[in-house]
Specification:
Blueprint (H helix, E strand, L loop, with lengths): L7 H18 E3 L13 H4 L9 E5 L5 H8 L3 E6 L2 H11 L4 E5 L11 E7 L8 H11 E12 L6 E6 L2 E5 L27 H10 L2 E7 L11 H7 L2 E3 H5 L1 H4 L5 E8 L5
Parallel strand pairs: 2-3, 2-5, 3-4, 5-6
Antiparallel strand pairs: 1-10, 6-11, 7-8, 9-11
Bound molecules: S-adenosylmethionine.
């Protein structure tokens, strides 16, 4: 198949089809803020700014577990996603937490308000125009506002190869132009490929948008094999059987790169 890049229509169809299974098979906490599979949540990483009555926007929210968590701490939350089905899962989950779920593509979002905090966990890989997403997010931040961006780590675009003598390692044909991951295709041809970019490229887009990087993290997973089921339930905010089978790889290669940024200037 020749892959031409994600479109809003293809992504919506793909994530609509997947939504129910994704939410059923993945346990995503609403009592901690998550950054990705098997990774410590914000109760450990402590990257969130002071909460309370802040205005927050989530980009590519899925069922919006992070927004629900923030709303329960008093934040006023807007959460956008391209998939109506993911949003429907979110509305069901939110119960009393007031999250303003909206069906909007991150690739064509216009000003949705002014926010103290904009956050996005593993949605940017599905954007057709990531530089624009970062620019639009920066434009919606209040001065001194925080942008918490978690996206796919470029090393995770590599392929695991057996290199003999019971050893394996990651092979990345081209770090500067990592391949998009087109393995995520459904039988009917709907596709939403994850793209990866070099960390320096992401940092340039962030800088050009007028944001200053305060922290850059490549978090490693919690030690799942040494933890009891009870500890996993309590301490791992994003977990699934599939991700657990990948633990030996996740323990050696970061699955995400995480930027905590502050709006320090308005770009020219
Ligand atoms: C891997 S899921 C992550 C969802 C959520 N952030 C979480 O951590 O559970 C990626 C999400 O990005 C959404 N998405 C894909 N393309 C999008 C687009 N162009 N605009 C907005 N959301 C998009 C998908 O519908 C999906 O809900």
């Amino acid at each position: 198949m020749h892959y031409q890049g994600n479109t809003d229509e293809g992504s919506a169809r793909y994530w609509d089809d997947l939504a129910e299974v994704y939410q059923r098979e993945t346990r995503i906490s609403t009592t901690d803020f998550h950054y990705g599979p098997l990774l410590p949540g914000d109760s450990t990483l402590q990257l969130l700014p002071n909460l309370g009555k802040i205005h927050a926007l989530e980009i590519g929210c899925g069922a919006g577990q992070n927004s629900i968590f923030l709303a329960e701490q008093g934040a006023q939350c807007v959460a956008i996603d391209i998939s109506k089905e993911q949003l429907a899962q979110g509305r069901k989950l939110a119960k009393d937490a007031t999250v303003d779920f909206r069906c909007v593509s991150m690739d064509s979002m216009d000003k949705l308000g002014e926010f103290d905090l904009i956050h996005s966990t593993y949605a940017l890989p599905f954007s057709a125009d990531p530089a624009r997403v970062i620019q639009e997010a920066a434009a919606m931040l209040k001065p001194d506002g925080t942008f918490l961006l978690t996206t796919g780590h470029p090393l995770y675009a590599g392929e695991w190869l057996d290199i003999g003598d019971d050893e394996d390692g990651v092979f990345l044909p081209n770090y500067f132009h990592p391949e998009s991951d087109v393995r995520m295709a459904l039988d009917d041809g709907a596709i939403s490929a994850a793209s990866y970019w070099p960390i320096s490229q992401l940092a340039e887009w962030i800088h050009e948008a007028g944001l200053t990087i305060e922290r850059l993290l490549e978090p490693s997973p919690l030690p799942i094999p040494e933890m009891s089921e009870k500890e996993i339930q309590e301490k791992v905010p994003y977990d699934s059987a599939d991700w657990r089978t990948l633990y030996p790889q996740l323990a050696r290669i970061p699955v995400v790169v995480l930027f905590k940024c502050r709006k320090t200037r308005t770009p020219a």
